[in-house]
Amino acid sequence: MHSCNPIELPIDPVEGIPLDMPLVYFHGHVTPSVNVDLYKALVKELAQILERQFAGNVESRAAGMVINTMGWIEGVGYELLLHAIDTFNATVVLVLGQEKLWSMLRDVLKNKANVDVVKLQKSGGVVSRNAKVRQKARAYRIREYFYGLANDLSRILTLQISVICTSTESVVDHRPTFCPASWGRTGCRPYKIDSC
User: Fold this and answer.
1) Are residues 146 and 72 in the same domain?
2) By C-alpha distance, which of 114, 115, 2 is closest to 105?
3) Does any domain span residue 7?
4) CA distances from 92 to 6, 84, 115, 116 (A)
5) Residues of the signal sequence (predicted)?
């Protein structure tokens, strides 16, 4: 999922980030490796929208942005990290507790004008979360989204259905109104999905 939200006040530790004007693009999968091209297209679309926002708003442009990327830093994850740095025209890249990643980024970005790669140390006692802990945290955030922090939002309806093996050739609506205008018609292409 890709999202952005203006933050103009200190963040409340209980309520979290205020969601007055969020912009969210859902990739449709837990991992970007399922559809890397779509993931990159969504990153590009988000960057273009923010660029337009900055062009029309002096305060936003002066404030800048903080881009929090995923923790996947090997293989395709590293490729997507470089894509985000390039697409958002990042000027400062902070690397937290990853000596190898810092070294790799410093070498790759050394010829890119106006990009500083800064290494930060983790605080003492900080441990990396394993896959199970990350999955649990993600499930908690999804539940919090639907039910609220204090379980005070309305319940959602859950239906259980049987799935029959299918093969779908096109799951994308090809009408120009389906995709953001910046994608053009080529951005909306069909993807084959097999389920079983």
Assistant:
1) no
2) 115
3) yes
4) 19, 12, 6, 5
5) none
